Amino acid sequence: MQSRHALRRLTHVHTLLHRQHALREALSHTHTHTQTYMHMHSQHAIRETHTRTVYTHTFL
Questions:
Q1: Three-state secondary structure readout of the chain
Q2: Residues ≥6 apart with Cβ < 8 Å to 37
Q3: 30: which residues sit within 8 A by CB, 6+ positions away?
Q4: Tens digit of pLDDT at every position of the chain (60 positions)
Q5: From CA 17, how far away is CA 12, in angstroms rounded?
């Protein structure tokens, strides 16, 4: 039981490292890629701020 848990943890760490590497590779791919990512991120931030404002209004 202990070894199976350890194996799952190891697999999880490996998956995280692999995903991190893939993400870094995708980000360094092109400048356009980074711009698109930044745009998406800012859009999400705007939406989040808007939601928070509405949420605050409801409580006041």
A1: CHHHHHHHHHHHHHHHHHHHHHHHHHHCCCHHHHHHHHHHHHHHHHHHHHHHHHHHHHHC
A2: 27
A3: none
A4: 677 877 777 777 777 777 777 777 766 665 555 666 666 667 766 677 666 666 565 665
A5: 9
Q: What is the pTM of this model?
A: 0.29
Q: How many CA atoms lie within 13 A of 47 on its CB side?
A: 6
Give the chain's largest Cα–Cα span: 53
CA 56 remoteness from chain centre: 26
The CB density around residue 51, as the number of other CB atoms within 10 Å, is: 10
Q: Kindly list the distances between the CA atom of residue 39 and the CA atoms of 26, 28, 32, 34, 47, in Å, as whole numbers in the listed order.
A: 16, 16, 10, 9, 12
